[in-house]
Specification:
The chain is an alpha/beta fold and 272 residues long. The chain contains eleven helices and eleven strands. The protein starts with 7 loop residues before the first strand and ends in a 7-residue tail after the last helix.
Length: 272
């Protein structure tokens, strides 16, 4: 267990599915609104329709089948964090934004592991037996396979398959980590949006419904993750509702970045 320095966290739960650009803008807003004093936001959200998200530095033309996405109405967004392609569909997405360096450590690898351990506490409450993954092959780190092809070091596996894929960004004492937790199998669609269609590596993922042998709802899963995370960090969670001023700020971030093709397609770097 890890004791939070600031025992009171702010909890945001977006139960209504939102567009991908809005989801990314909210995470961006929370990260940049962190004060110097220790504060932590815990957020859970879901997606209005299937959305591909790219790591901040990824070259779109190397990883995404743009024609397929356009034909099928699949959105594409670029994250503020690094990492590889993720297809967000039938899932729970979590994010943790914090300026509490004492609780989470100042090192990416340590805070990443702590958050994975807290998420595993939620999975155990569901009756699963998760564990931390070892480092993936070097070929995966250098290549363009999707996020769920292999677990990264200290990501979460169950029964030899990846159940949570995460990415983190740090600036000074502040960090954001967000990640995808599939509720249902979307392997066929993931194959279709990726240029690496049909590769055997894509079978290294699983979902909560597959593991538990029953349908799992967003609300049920979130309830278990909230319990596990608050127990692990011994944190008190206080609901956070955005006011009108905050919503306007999020909309501005969405317009400037996540709904902006220059940002998404990264034209300035010569990606397309």
């Amino acid at each position: 267990m890890a004791k939070a320095k600031n025992n009171e966290w702010l909890l945001v739960i977006d139960r209504v599915p939102q567009r991908g650009s809005w989801n990314m803008a909210v995470d961006d807003f929370l990260f940049h609104s962190l004060p110097e004093a220790p504060l932590t936001y815990l957020r859970f959200y879901c997606w209005q329709r299937p959305t591909v998200s790219l790591g901040y530095s990824q070259k779109m033309r190397r990883v995404v089948d743009l024609k397929f996405c356009e034909e099928q109405g699949i959105d594409i967004v670029r994250r503020m964090t690094g990492g590889k392609l993720v297809l967000h569909h039938k899932e729970v997405t979590y994010s943790i934004c914090s300026s509490d360096g004492e609780t989470f450590s100042s090192k990416l690898i340590d805070s990443y592991r702590l958050i994975s351990e807290a998420l595993m506490q939620g999975l155990r409450r569901m009756g699963l037996e998760p564990y931390l993954a070892d480092a993936p092959p070097k070929s995966y780190l250098r290549g363009n396979l999707p996020c769920f092809s292999y677990p990264a070091r200290n990501e979460v596996e169950v029964n030899g398959k990846k159940i949570i894929g995460s990415a983190q960004k740090r600036t000074g004492s502040r960090f954001i980590q967000h990640g995808s937790i599939p509720l249902e199998d979307d392997e066929g669609l993931l194959n279709s949006v990726s240029f690496h269609k049909g590769e055997e590596n894509l079978l290294r993922k699983t979902s909560l419904s597959q593991l538990l042998g029953k349908a799992v709802s967003f609300d049920w899963a979130v309830e278990h993750f909230i319990s596990g995370i608050s127990e692990f960090f011994q944190a008190k969670l206080t609901p956070k509702i955005f006011d009108d001023t905050e919503k306007k700020a999020i909309l501005r971030i969405e317009k400037e970045r996540y709904a902006n093709k220059d940002w998404t397609f990264n034209w300035k770097s010569g990606d397309l």
